[in-house]
Design brief:
With 616 residues, this protein is α/β, with parallel strands linked by helices. The chain folds into four domains: 185 residues, Rossmann fold (3-Layer(aba) Sandwich), CATH 3.40.50.2000; 191 residues, HAD superfamily/HAD-like (Rossmann fold, 3-Layer(aba) Sandwich); 72 residues, Alpha-Beta Plaits, CATH 3.30.70; 112 residues, no CATH class. The protein is built from 19 helices and 25 strands. Strands 8-20-19-18-9-10-11-12-13 form a nine-stranded mixed beta sheet, with helices on both faces. Strands 21-25-24-22-23 form a five-stranded antiparallel beta sheet. The protein has a four-stranded antiparallel beta sheet with strand order 14-15-17-16, covered by helices on one side. Helix 1 packs across helix 5 and helix 9 runs antiparallel to helix 17. The ligand O=P(O)(O)OC[C@H]1O[C@H](O[C@H]2O[C@H](CO)[C@@H](O)[C@H](O)[C@H]2O)[C@H](O)[C@@H](O)[C@@H]1O binds next to strand 15 and strand 17. One of its GO terms (cellular component) is cytosol. This is Trehalose-phosphatase. One of its GO terms (biological process) is trehalose biosynthetic process. In the C-terminal section; belongs to the trehalose phosphatase family. In the N-terminal section; belongs to the glycosyltransferase 20 family.
Length: 616
């Protein structure tokens, strides 16, 4: 007798059954064995009184001489006596509202099976057993023939009792057979053996693995990773990059180029600058491979004309900006969305802060803004739920960082990687440098494929392959970078290596386009136009605020595009560069406040100059 055993709920359910199904009055008896209480206290006393009251009421209402519907046994009972009760019981009912494993159902099945004695002259009839078990007890999922109930629901438990004892003998035999087969094979020896096997499997490579501590507080975990798993160092990758002739660079978006936690999901100017520069290099094929929809990716990366984009995990691919989007799936049947959507809605309603995102090819349930523990518990449950209702649909259900996503089967970032590598191979320039960076589970498919047997046939024999995950965690990738800053620093090193081969004019040109600058006519030396082509190595680039150039201000006062007067606040920045460092310093511009007005002077050898103004 413990308060969580749900004994009174069982009595109420039994009472309900007798009330609704009259046929059992005078025939059904509930024997409640209440083992002596393991604790004492007010709560327990209350529950004992409640049980007594229910038993008396039921017996008063439905009992008569020679028939007591409820038999409450409140004393310790010998094992032999218990076996006797179990072996004659048509059905065992466990209604605990909270429990551990609870072995009562297993014991009951074994007692009902009985012992077959070959000396018995009378042939035994097949054993039967029935179970009504609470879904809150540990053994419940292992008993597939049991009727599972939520013990708080008295009506359905009462109906389950009626169903259990009303089933045909053949049905009871089948269910018993199933249960007995399970119980007799999953014995202590089986459990200990499988536990040891699991332990051995998990620890097999421990000595050859490196262990990292990750996370803080309750989130702290020790992860065992391959000893070859190591930090990607910019120098190492930059030297492989410089040597390579045909490079494939595949970059995930969220959590890789932009932190998962940032509220503004658009790429920073820095990201655009790096990606543009990498794309400008003719030896590069650069792709953003993301789960996001194509519209936002398209808009955000507008300045990167040569960038390839794979959206919705590869459902859509666009090779460069001037090419059309292609769909890499023959799927036209999206009726599964009508099945998945109501399930997601159910969880959205019960999980504050969660929401559903509808993409062209997929449905995503987001729980980033929900309570962390509840959100992830709901996500796990929803994943199981979706998997079962969508079992016959052509979809896959996957979880990611604070998301559960349903998408068409066969669509994966891994396939995108293969397509890009195969396109390069078809053009006769198989990749000799492959860099793939991502942070989430969907990116693991890319890491697996770039190093897999299919890719092997598509890339150059001596290719350098860098699969790189963001954050130290078990991964198919061989390298890691710590965070998005680390990713951008590494990519900057590669962009720098590329820029050495890009003319300064090209650099300034792409910078001007990206930064919405307005070029002022060069009035300093009397020229009226930007002297295109005069910018060469060795010239200097100065970006100055007007306070440092009072004379220029005077010179410029007549200019149409000029915007005097300037406030003191606008006149506070000054920077000088050497043109050989142009490529490094251009990125600094993006850190300036865009509402300020600057004059930049780009001097060529003969003091040709351009001036441009930076507007918001
Ligand atoms: O492949 P990725 O580039 O990593 O994109 C995967 C998913 O990105 C988006 O979700 C992510 O951003 C959400 C906030 O905007 C955030 O709540 C979530 O945790 C992130 O995973 C996108 O909404 C999903 O459709 C993509 O599958």
């Amino acid at each position: 007798m413990d308060i969580f055993k749900g004994i009174n709920l069982k009595l109420l359910a039994f009472e309900h059954m007798l009330k609704i199904h009259h046929k059992w009055q005078g025939r059904a008896v509930l024997v409640q064995i209440a083992n002596p209480a393991r604790a004492q206290g007010k709560d327990l006393k209350e529950i004992q009184d409640e049980i007594q009251e229910s038993c008396q009421r039921i017996n008063r209402t439905f009992g008569h001489e020679g028939y007591s519907p409820v038999v409450l046994i409140e004393r310790s009972m010998s094992a032999v006596e218990k076996v006797a009760y179990y072996s004659i019981a048509e059905c065992v009912v466990v209604t605990a509202v909270r429990d551990g494993m609870n072995l009562t159902p297993y014991e009951y099945i074994v007692y009902r099976q009985g012992i077959f004695d070959s000396a018995d002259s009378v042939a035994k009839s097949p054993a039967k057993s029935m179970l009504v078990v609470s879904e809150f007890i540990g053994c419940s999922p292992s008993l597939s023939g049991a009727i599972r109930i939520n013990s708080w629901n008295i009506q359905t438990t009462g109906e389950a009792l009626n169903e259990a004892i009303s089933l045909s003998d053949a049905e009871k035999e089948l269910r018993h057979e199933k249960h007995y087969r399970y119980v007799s094979t999953h014995n202590v020896a089986y459990w200990s053996k499988s536990f040891m096997q699991g332990l051995e499997r998990t620890c097999k490579d421990h000595f050859s693995r490196t262990c990292w501590g990750s996370g803080l507080g309750f989130g702290f975990r020790v992860v065992a990773v391959d000893p070859n798993f190591r930090k990607l160092h910019a120098d190492g990758i930059a030297s492989a990059y410089t040597k390579a002739k045909s490079r494939a660079i595949l970059l995930d978006y969220d959590g890789t180029l932009v932190p998962q936690t940032s509220i503004n999901k658009k790429p920073s100017r820095e990201v655009i600058r790096i990606v543009s520069t990498l794309c400008e290099d003719k030896q590069n094929v650069v792709f953003i491979v993301s789960g996001r929809g194509r519209q936002s990716l398209d808009e955000w990366f507008l300045p990167c004309e040569k960038l390839g984009i794979s959206a919705e995990h590869g459902y859509f691919i666009r090779w460069t900006q001037d090419q059309e989007w292609e769909t890499y799936s023959h799927t036209t049947d999206f009726t599964w969305m009508q099945i998945a959507d109501p399930v997601m809605n159910l969880y959205t309603e019960s999980t504050d802060g969660s929401c559903i995102e509808t993409k062209d090819s997929a449905l995503v349930w987001h729980h980033r803004d929900a309570d962390p523990d509840f959100g992830s518990a709901q996500a796990k449950e929803m994943l199981d739920h979706l998997e079962s209702v969508l079992a016959n649909e052509p979809v896959s259900v996957k979880s990611g960082k604070f998301i559960v996503e349903v998408k068409p089967q066969g669509i994966s970032k891994g396939l995108v990687a293969e397509k890009i590598l195969s396109s390069l191979a078809e053009k006769g320039r198989p990749a000799d440098f492959v860099l793939c960076i991502g942070d989430d589970r969907s990116d693991e498919d890319m890491f697996e494929n770039i190093a897999g047997p299919v890719a092997e046939k598509l890339i150059a024999p001596d290719a350098s392959i860098f699969g790189c995950t963001v954050g130290q965690k078990p991964s198919q990738a061989r390298f890691f970078l710590d965070d998005t800053n680390d990713v951008l620093n590494t990519l900057t090193a590669l962009a720098d290596a590329s820029e050495q081969f890009v003319s300064p004019e090209k650099l300034i040109h792409s910078f001007l386009i990206r930064s919405s600058l307005i070029i002022h006519n060069d009035t300093m030396n009397g020229r009226s136009k930007f002297p295109h082509g005069t910018l060469i190595q060795g010239s200097s680039l100065c970006l100055r605020n007007l306070s440092t150039f009072p004379d220029y201000v005077r010179n410029f006062k007549g200019e149409e595009t000029f915007r005097p007067p300037f406030s003191q606040r606008e006149l506070c920045h000054c920077i000088d560069w050497d043109t050989s460092l142009v490529r490094r310093n251009l990125s600094l511009i993006s850190s300036f406040e865009p509402s300020f007005t600057y004059i930049a002077t780009l001097r060529a050898v003969k003091f040709h100059s351009i001036f441009f103004q930076l507007y918001k």
